[in-house]
Amino acid sequence: MKLTISESEKNRIKSLYINEQDRNPSNADSHPDLDEFGWDDYWEFPQWQTWFNSNVSKYGKQKAQEKFVRSWAAASEGFEDGEENGMDEEWLKSNGLWNSSSGEVYAPNEFIVSSQSQYKNKIDKKYEVTLPMKASTQLKQFLKCEEGSPKKKCEPVLVSYRIPGEPFDTVGFGHHGEDVVKLYKKITHSVAEQLLDKDIEKFSSCVNRLLQRWKDKGIKSYAVTQGQFDAMVSFAFNAGCSSLLNSKFIQQTKLGNHQKAAELIKTENVLMAGHTGRRNRESNMYLNGQYQ
Question: Which residue in 139, 72, 132, 155 sits closest to 108, CA to CA?
């Protein structure tokens, strides 16, 4: 089956390319001959493959596919039926260029519909995040080292103490509250672990409630990575849930501006010298999923 294409479409296709005179398939900005379709100007199929790969390297696969099917449709007016320059059907299939239903290379309008559907499926898959999320084991270890004893790194403080300016005592891995004086003035390592798990759950719930509100409103940025979730939990653990909800970095997260959010978290709620290093580590966790 021969495809037909209008003169205006030929001219539109020509306008897609920077260098009309260049027929070198290794140049992504060259193009197959679309002018008069003389036999001596045809590319053999390996040249089409080279050109496609050049476009993938420069523009990405979706743009390369689009250029390929449009140019193929135009050039195929000069092909003999069944003799399309030794085309490789398996290669076309593997690169998403072959319409199995029609048994030929996608026509431009068919490809656009198909690629939009594929793109939507890819986007939907990207946002497949199950709430509530759980804090990772890496975050628990991170918090042990950030919230534990300053004398014995990553170990709990087993006797409660009062930080100047704080209304409550602190014990274990940064656990504080009025329950410390009543129940946890002296604790064991096992109790410190239990309190840490309880606090991680508390601040994970804070973050999950926020993400669920975004999801309910159709805000796609609810779908955060594990590193982003853990960084938000760590920040809330240290600064409080209210500080997290009112922070500038969380507003950028909501907008999907993750680079900006990672920069802003570095300066959020920095109240003492130790906070500077912690915020930098939380920024690295948020952006790169690294816990050091």
Answer: 72
